[in-house]
Design brief:
alpha+beta, Nucleoside Triphosphate Pyrophosphohydrolase, Arc Repressor Mutant, subunit A, three-stranded antiparallel beta sheet, 6 helices
Protein backbone atom coordinates (compact mmCIF):
# COMPACT_ATOMS: atom_id res chain seq x y z
CA UNK A 1 0.00 0.00 0.00
CA UNK A 2 1.32 3.43 -0.93
CA UNK A 3 2.07 5.80 1.93
CA UNK A 4 -0.28 8.82 2.00
CA UNK A 5 2.64 11.21 1.51
CA UNK A 6 3.45 9.46 -1.76
CA UNK A 7 -0.05 9.80 -3.17
CA UNK A 8 -1.49 12.74 -5.06
CA UNK A 9 -3.27 14.24 -2.05
CA UNK A 10 -3.67 17.91 -1.23
CA UNK A 11 -1.20 18.37 1.61
CA UNK A 12 -2.38 19.41 5.07
CA UNK A 13 -6.09 19.02 4.24
CA UNK A 14 -8.20 16.17 5.61
CA UNK A 15 -11.84 15.18 5.90
CA UNK A 16 -13.38 13.88 9.14
CA UNK A 17 -16.76 12.16 8.92
CA UNK A 18 -19.36 11.81 11.67
CA UNK A 19 -21.67 8.99 10.56
CA UNK A 20 -24.95 9.08 12.48
CA UNK A 21 -27.25 6.07 12.73
CA UNK A 22 -30.39 5.48 14.79
CA UNK A 23 -31.44 2.28 16.56
CA UNK A 24 -33.76 1.51 19.47
CA UNK A 25 -34.10 5.16 20.51
CA UNK A 26 -30.36 5.74 20.47
CA UNK A 27 -28.47 8.11 18.20
CA UNK A 28 -25.22 6.36 17.33
CA UNK A 29 -21.91 7.21 15.68
CA UNK A 30 -19.79 4.79 13.66
CA UNK A 31 -16.23 4.85 15.05
CA UNK A 32 -13.19 2.70 14.28
CA UNK A 33 -10.64 1.64 16.88
CA UNK A 34 -7.12 1.84 15.51
CA UNK A 35 -5.13 -1.36 15.17
CA UNK A 36 -2.37 -0.47 17.64
CA UNK A 37 -1.57 -1.27 21.24
CA UNK A 38 -3.47 1.19 23.42
CA UNK A 39 -6.90 2.78 23.30
CA UNK A 40 -7.03 4.88 20.15
CA UNK A 41 -10.42 5.66 18.57
CA UNK A 42 -10.77 8.04 15.65
CA UNK A 43 -13.47 9.25 13.30
CA UNK A 44 -13.53 7.80 9.77
CA UNK A 45 -11.27 10.15 7.87
CA UNK A 46 -9.32 10.56 4.68
CA UNK A 47 -7.63 12.93 2.28
CA UNK A 48 -8.54 14.74 -0.93
CA UNK A 49 -6.89 14.06 -4.27
CA UNK A 50 -5.55 17.06 -6.17
CA UNK A 51 -8.14 16.63 -8.94
CA UNK A 52 -11.06 15.64 -6.67
CA UNK A 53 -13.99 17.76 -5.47
CA UNK A 54 -14.24 17.93 -1.68
CA UNK A 55 -17.82 16.59 -1.60
CA UNK A 56 -16.82 13.71 -3.86
CA UNK A 57 -13.93 12.88 -1.53
CA UNK A 58 -16.30 12.81 1.44
CA UNK A 59 -18.69 10.48 -0.42
CA UNK A 60 -15.78 8.22 -1.35
CA UNK A 61 -14.64 7.99 2.28
CA UNK A 62 -18.18 7.36 3.51
CA UNK A 63 -18.89 4.67 0.94
CA UNK A 64 -15.62 2.96 1.87
CA UNK A 65 -16.76 2.76 5.53
CA UNK A 66 -20.49 2.02 5.11
CA UNK A 67 -20.82 0.16 1.76
CA UNK A 68 -23.61 2.62 0.83
CA UNK A 69 -23.43 4.69 -2.34
CA UNK A 70 -26.32 7.13 -1.82
CA UNK A 71 -25.52 8.83 1.47
CA UNK A 72 -27.02 12.01 2.87
CA UNK A 73 -24.18 14.24 4.01
CA UNK A 74 -23.66 17.83 5.08
CA UNK A 75 -20.48 19.84 5.44
CA UNK A 76 -20.85 21.46 8.85
CA UNK A 77 -17.57 23.00 10.02
CA UNK A 78 -13.91 23.56 9.19
CA UNK A 79 -11.45 22.79 11.98
CA UNK A 80 -8.35 24.91 11.53
CA UNK A 81 -6.81 25.98 14.84
CA UNK A 82 -3.14 26.85 14.43
CA UNK A 83 -2.23 24.22 17.03
CA UNK A 84 -4.16 21.46 15.26
CA UNK A 85 -1.77 18.64 14.30
CA UNK A 86 -1.23 14.93 14.90
CA UNK A 87 2.15 15.18 16.66
CA UNK A 88 0.98 14.54 20.24
CA UNK A 89 -1.20 11.66 19.10
CA UNK A 90 1.57 10.09 16.99
CA UNK A 91 4.13 10.46 19.77
CA UNK A 92 1.76 8.69 22.17
CA UNK A 93 1.07 6.02 19.55
CA UNK A 94 4.81 5.38 19.08
CA UNK A 95 5.37 5.31 22.85
CA UNK A 96 2.75 2.55 23.14
CA UNK A 97 4.02 0.77 20.03
CA UNK A 98 7.84 0.91 20.03
CA UNK A 99 7.95 -1.44 17.03
CA UNK A 100 6.93 1.60 14.92
CA UNK A 101 10.44 2.73 14.00
CA UNK A 102 10.95 6.37 13.05
CA UNK A 103 14.28 6.93 11.31
CA UNK A 104 15.67 8.90 8.38
CA UNK A 105 13.87 6.95 5.71
CA UNK A 106 10.30 6.59 4.44
CA UNK A 107 9.00 6.21 8.02
CA UNK A 108 10.56 9.53 9.01
CA UNK A 109 9.13 11.28 5.97
CA UNK A 110 5.73 9.77 6.69
CA UNK A 111 5.91 10.89 10.32
CA UNK A 112 6.78 14.43 9.26
CA UNK A 113 3.93 14.45 6.71
CA UNK A 114 1.38 13.39 9.32
CA UNK A 115 2.60 15.75 12.05
CA UNK A 116 2.10 18.91 10.02
CA UNK A 117 -0.80 21.19 10.87
CA UNK A 118 -3.93 19.85 9.17
CA UNK A 119 -7.09 21.75 8.29
CA UNK A 120 -9.98 19.31 8.56
CA UNK A 121 -13.33 19.66 6.81
CA UNK A 122 -16.10 18.15 8.90
CA UNK A 123 -19.03 16.28 7.32
CA UNK A 124 -21.89 14.51 9.00
CA UNK A 125 -23.81 11.70 7.33
CA UNK A 126 -27.28 10.34 8.12
CA UNK A 127 -27.82 6.67 7.31
CA UNK A 128 -30.39 3.93 7.81
CA UNK A 129 -28.36 1.86 10.25
CA UNK A 130 -29.92 -1.37 8.96
CA UNK A 131 -28.41 -0.80 5.52
CA UNK A 132 -24.88 -0.14 6.72
CA UNK A 133 -22.21 -2.84 6.53
CA UNK A 134 -19.35 -1.31 8.56
CA UNK A 135 -16.04 -1.75 6.78
CA UNK A 136 -12.59 -1.81 8.37
CA UNK A 137 -9.54 -0.46 6.58
CA UNK A 138 -5.92 -1.51 7.11
CA UNK A 139 -5.49 0.80 10.11
CA UNK A 140 -8.56 -0.47 11.98
CA UNK A 141 -8.76 -3.07 14.72
CA UNK A 142 -12.55 -2.79 14.74
CA UNK A 143 -15.37 -0.47 13.72
CA UNK A 144 -18.50 -0.24 15.87
CA UNK A 145 -21.57 1.90 16.59
CA UNK A 146 -21.43 3.94 19.81
CA UNK A 147 -24.14 5.97 21.53
CA UNK A 148 -23.44 9.64 20.85
CA UNK A 149 -23.57 10.27 24.62
CA UNK A 150 -21.22 7.36 25.47
CA UNK A 151 -18.30 7.72 23.09
CA UNK A 152 -14.94 6.05 23.68
CA UNK A 153 -11.93 8.32 24.32
CA UNK A 154 -11.18 9.88 20.96
CA UNK A 155 -7.86 11.10 19.58
CA UNK A 156 -7.07 14.77 19.04
CA UNK A 157 -10.23 16.94 18.77
CA UNK A 158 -12.52 14.20 17.43
CA UNK A 159 -14.88 14.37 20.43
CA UNK A 160 -15.29 18.09 19.73
CA UNK A 161 -16.01 17.30 16.07
CA UNK A 162 -18.81 14.90 17.08
CA UNK A 163 -20.28 17.50 19.45
CA UNK A 164 -20.28 20.16 16.70
CA UNK A 165 -21.84 17.70 14.28
CA UNK A 166 -24.68 17.01 16.71
CA UNK A 167 -25.25 20.74 17.19
CA UNK A 168 -25.32 21.21 13.42
CA UNK A 169 -27.77 18.34 12.99
CA UNK A 170 -30.14 19.84 15.55
CA UNK A 171 -29.92 23.22 13.82
CA UNK A 172 -30.52 21.69 10.40
CA UNK A 173 -33.53 19.52 11.28
CA UNK A 174 -36.25 22.10 10.69
CA UNK A 175 -34.69 23.90 7.73
CA UNK A 176 -33.37 20.88 5.82
CA UNK A 177 -35.91 18.32 7.11
CA UNK A 178 -33.23 15.65 6.96
CA UNK A 179 -33.94 13.48 10.03
CA UNK A 180 -35.95 11.01 7.94
CA UNK A 181 -32.68 9.74 6.43
CA UNK A 182 -32.12 7.98 9.76
CA UNK A 183 -35.35 5.98 9.48
CA UNK A 184 -36.30 3.02 7.28
CA UNK A 185 -38.39 3.75 4.18
CA UNK A 186 -41.70 3.31 6.08
CA UNK A 187 -42.29 4.51 9.62
CA UNK A 188 -45.01 5.55 12.06
CA UNK A 189 -45.54 9.01 13.47
CA UNK A 190 -44.58 7.65 16.89
CA UNK A 191 -41.24 6.54 15.46
CA UNK A 192 -40.67 10.02 14.03
CA UNK A 193 -41.39 11.60 17.42
CA UNK A 194 -39.07 9.16 19.18
CA UNK A 195 -36.33 10.03 16.70
CA UNK A 196 -36.71 13.77 17.28
CA UNK A 197 -36.82 13.27 21.05
CA UNK A 198 -33.61 11.25 20.84
CA UNK A 199 -31.80 13.84 18.74
CA UNK A 200 -32.88 16.79 20.90
CA UNK A 201 -32.69 14.78 24.14
CA UNK A 202 -36.05 16.08 25.35
CA UNK A 203 -39.74 15.07 25.09
CA UNK A 204 -42.34 16.60 22.75
CA UNK A 205 -46.10 16.88 23.30
CA UNK A 206 -47.59 14.28 20.95
CA UNK A 207 -50.43 16.35 19.48
CA UNK A 208 -48.27 19.44 18.92
CA UNK A 209 -45.48 17.37 17.42
CA UNK A 210 -47.75 15.53 14.99
CA UNK A 211 -49.32 18.80 13.85
CA UNK A 212 -45.88 20.34 13.32
CA UNK A 213 -44.63 17.41 11.25
CA UNK A 214 -47.75 17.11 9.10
CA UNK A 215 -47.70 20.84 8.35
CA UNK A 216 -44.27 20.40 6.77
CA UNK A 217 -46.04 18.56 3.93
CA UNK A 218 -43.13 16.21 3.39
CA UNK A 219 -44.78 12.90 4.34
CA UNK A 220 -46.99 10.58 2.35
CA UNK A 221 -49.48 8.57 4.39
CA UNK A 222 -49.65 4.88 3.49
CA UNK A 223 -51.48 1.83 4.82
CA UNK A 224 -51.91 1.08 8.49
CA UNK A 225 -49.35 -0.90 10.44
CA UNK A 226 -51.43 -3.79 11.73
CA UNK A 227 -50.33 -5.03 15.13
CA UNK A 228 -53.27 -7.26 16.08
CA UNK A 229 -55.56 -4.44 17.20
CA UNK A 230 -56.97 -3.00 13.97
CA UNK A 231 -58.74 -0.08 15.62
CA UNK A 232 -55.47 1.11 17.18
CA UNK A 233 -53.18 0.40 14.27
CA UNK A 234 -51.09 3.48 13.43
CA UNK A 235 -50.62 4.74 9.90
CA UNK A 236 -47.33 4.23 8.15
CA UNK A 237 -45.67 7.14 6.39
CA UNK A 238 -42.79 7.66 4.03
CA UNK A 239 -40.82 10.72 3.07
CA UNK A 240 -41.97 12.29 -0.22
CA UNK A 241 -39.53 12.51 -3.06
CA UNK A 242 -38.44 16.08 -3.75
CA UNK A 243 -40.58 16.41 -6.87
CA UNK A 244 -43.70 15.68 -4.80
CA UNK A 245 -43.01 18.33 -2.16
CA UNK A 246 -44.72 21.58 -2.92
Amino acid sequence: MKNPSQQNYISQVSIDCVIFGYHERQLKVLIPKLNFKGDFWALPAGFVYQDEDIDRAAKRILQERTSIKDIYLEQFHVFGNASRNNKAFLDQLIANNPHIVVSKNDNQREYEWFTQRFISIGYYALVDINKVIPQKIDLDHSIEWYNVHSLPPMIMDHSEIVAKALTALRTDLNEKINAFNLLPEKFTMKEVQELYETIFDRPFVRTNFQKMILELNVLERLEKKFTGAANKAPYLYRFKVKDDIG
